[in-house]
Amino acid sequence: MFNRDNWQEIFQTLKKNKIRTLLTAFGVFWGIFMLIIMLGSGAGLENGVSSGMGNFATNSFFIWAQRTTIPYKGFPRGRFFNFKNNDIEALKSNIPEIKYIAPKISGWSSGDGTNNTVRKNKTGAFSIKGEYPAWGKVDPMEIHGRFINQIDLDEQRKIAIIGSRVKEVLFEPEEDAIGQSIQIQGVYFTVVGVFKPLNTQINFGGEKEQTIYIPLSTLQKTYNYGDIVGWFSITVNEGESAVLTEEKTMKFLASRHGVHPDDNEAFGHFNLSEEFEQMNGLFNGIESLIWIVGIGTLLAGVIGISNIMLVIVKERTREIGIKRALGATPVQIMLQIITESVFLTTLSGYIGLVAGVAIIEVINMALIKFQIENEMFKNPEVDFNTAIIALVILIVAGALAGIIPANRAISIKPVDALRAEG
What we know:
There is one protein chain. The protein is α+β, with helices and mostly antiparallel strands. 53% of the residues lie in helices and 17% in strands. It has helices at 4-16, 18-53, 86-94, 135-138, 150-154, 164-170, 216-222, 242-256, 272-315, 317-325, 330-369, 384-410, 414-419, and strands at residues 60-65, 83-84, 98-106, 117-119, 122-124, 127-131, 141-145, 159-163, 181-184, 187-197, 211-215, 228-229, 231-236, 267-271. Strands 1, 3, 4, 5, 6, 7, 8, 9, 10, 11, 13 and 14 form a 12-stranded mixed β-sheet that branches. The chain has a two-stranded antiparallel sheet with strand order 2-12.
């Protein structure tokens, strides 16, 4: 197979008709080129969506109270109820699958778009959220300063953690917001942290950059909510099902608040784990489709090489007959034909692979250089293992493309071959 004369013969054969060789090789080149481009683009799409989710705990769900739709235990249909502070410890004690629980509530506004936050001569309208320390575990963030802690809750401290956009509006560009005071609904709060969200695609009631977090207990007192809780953000332990835990949580809360067990409309809920699984399924489907289309295109090119090898075998019938007459074995003839096929397929495919990877890298560098940020497309790339798989497919395809022409070559009897016209 590595005989020097054989390789010289291969090169001479391919050079005899350069146009035919180039056109045939282009089919394989284009197939592997498009496969790599599509795989890289698919990875860029997946990276964009995944980076938008940041480090958000995907094994989480969210639940809030709504109006009941079924009368139960003397309560009428259409009753609205609220979660309470004592539900927090009850959930922790009765549902061991829960890892983190972050009760939340939003501060109300006048509804007319007026500003609710003031600092000196600057004002702004922002989302005010009452939070628990665990929220930093559910939705991690890049923070300068600190987040809410348990002492803040216990002592109902008037502290605030502001979003990056809030700082831009209320403070000077080079001014340090930590330790400064702001007014929220006329009450002074001390800024102890400035945060920048690590994800942008999961929002609850307004853009995160324009949100101010204060302790839940402080917000309840400031807005005269009593012990009302707006909703729960819950993360389950590793290995536990967020879907099953969500169902268990709703049944438990239904029993605590006199809600009919079959009243599915009494609770609003959103399960991020289900959404994440669906998203993964979507990307797996896209990748599978890319491979099907890419391999189909590649197969068309391989069939072209197989056909051209049949033509070459026919043109070299007399030459093959002479080789057989001089003692060449059928295996040697087969190896010669298959080697030509594998060489042409691998060479053209490798060039397509390199060209595809180069295009993907150029796009990636352009995105970085020009600081183009897109939540749906980021860091297109081709995995090294994928490139190796593509090369293996090329070699195997080349061998398969040469089998039919090789069988045709060894089926020719030496006497008939020598009689063939040159």
